[in-house]
Amino acid sequence: MDSKNYHNIILLYKIILIYGLCLVFSKAELPRFAHATKSDGSLILLVVGDWGRRGTFNQTEVAIQMANVGRLVDPDFIISTGDNFYEDGLTCVDDPAFEESFSNIYMGPEQWYSVLGNHDYRGDVLAQLDPILNQKDARWICLRSFIISTDVADLFLVDTTPFVDKYFTDPEDHTYDWRGVLPREEYLSNLLKENHVDIYVNGHDHSLEHISSSDSPLQFLTSGGGSKAWRQTIRPWNPQELKFYYDGQGFMTMALTENGVLFQFHDVLGNILHQWSGSKGFET
Ligand SMILES: *[C@@H]1O[C@H](CO)[C@@H](O)[C@H](O)[C@H]1NC(C)=O
């Protein structure tokens, strides 16, 4: 496995979905949201990333399909893997991009839980985290790192942008707003914990992707197709592990039950491009 690629996939932000009941998070310092499952004990999510472009680059088309699929599967909530507002985050809490790229684009009633991406750090990073946005649109919740607890899974939403060395050592012509992150070593050591993670979900790459680890039960899922895509910069990957790669727009649905997980990748026309299911403890 090419270690550079591995780094890109694993450490470029955003969600670590932890799937299991008997999980102990040694220092319970992260904010925690309790969310009910459905009456049958299942949990259904939509996951989208890399989206806020005032509807352009098929953002609106993806949003329409999310609403269509949402009416069918009745998601419990939506997760954004980050890069919420292009190109440089929000300028302030009154930036109209909040309405133009979020409130006016996504139609479903579901709660969103969002983390930050590298582009979000290039604006006023505190604006996206400000509870005032939740007053403007109650669907919006964005924190740095937090936990969503449900009966069937604990979801760890981890802000991994500060994990990427390059953004600190070689920011090129970008300016990052690292308020609340420095000193960086302390920030990282508090986040890196030993946990039995089953599924890792990230955005950042403008694609939909599924990689199965060959030496562990981990499934790596990328949902970063919320708007601009078609970059044609496909990184090579071990074909034994690469189950699916789509260099275009779309989003992911995920259903978790006591016994297993099913996820599906959808494109802008609502087609299911790839799906995978596994039982709980799917390594054995
Ligand atoms: C929008 O989606 C269609 C269908 O996948 C694709 O052919 C088209 O190139 C996309 N447009 C943009 C701007 O990405």
Automatic annotation (TrEMBL):
<dbReference type="InterPro" id="IPR024927">
    <property type="entry name" value="Acid_PPase"/>
</dbReference>
<feature type="binding site">
    <location>
        <position position="86"/>
    </location>
    <ligand>
        <name>Fe cation 1</name>
    </ligand>
</feature>
<keyword id="KW-0378">Hydrolase</keyword>
<comment type="similarity">
    <text>Belongs to the metallophosphoesterase superfamily. Purple acid phosphatase family.</text>
</comment>
<keyword id="KW-0408">Iron</keyword>
<dbReference type="Pfam" id="PF00149">
    <property type="entry name" value="Metallophos"/>
</dbReference>
<keyword id="KW-0479">Metal-binding</keyword>
<feature type="binding site">
    <location>
        <position position="206"/>
    </location>
    <ligand>
        <name>Fe cation 1</name>
    </ligand>
</feature>
<keyword id="KW-0812">Transmembrane</keyword>
<dbReference type="InterPro" id="IPR029052">
    <property type="entry name" value="Metallo-depent_PP-like"/>
</dbReference>
<feature type="binding site">
    <location>
        <position position="118"/>
    </location>
    <ligand>
        <name>Fe cation 2</name>
    </ligand>
</feature>
<feature type="binding site">
    <location>
        <position position="204"/>
    </location>
    <ligand>
        <name>Fe cation 2</name>
    </ligand>
</feature>
<protein>
    <recommendedName>
        <fullName>acid phosphatase</fullName>
        <ecNumber>3.1.3.2</ecNumber>
    </recommendedName>
</protein>
<keyword id="KW-0472">Membrane</keyword>
<dbReference type="GO" id="GO:0003993">
    <property type="term" value="F:acid phosphatase activity"/>
</dbReference>
<feature type="binding site">
    <location>
        <position position="50"/>
    </location>
    <ligand>
        <name>Fe cation 1</name>
    </ligand>
</feature>
<dbReference type="InterPro" id="IPR004843">
    <property type="entry name" value="Calcineurin-like_PHP"/>
</dbReference>
<feature type="domain" description="Calcineurin-like phosphoesterase">
    <location>
        <begin position="45"/>
        <end position="207"/>
    </location>
</feature>
<dbReference type="InterPro" id="IPR051558">
    <property type="entry name" value="Metallophosphoesterase_PAP"/>
</dbReference>
<keyword id="KW-0732">Signal</keyword>
<feature type="binding site">
    <location>
        <position position="83"/>
    </location>
    <ligand>
        <name>Fe cation 2</name>
    </ligand>
</feature>
<keyword id="KW-1133">Transmembrane helix</keyword>
<feature type="transmembrane region" description="Helical">
    <location>
        <begin position="6"/>
        <end position="25"/>
    </location>
</feature>
<feature type="binding site">
    <location>
        <position position="83"/>
    </location>
    <ligand>
        <name>Fe cation 1</name>
    </ligand>
</feature>
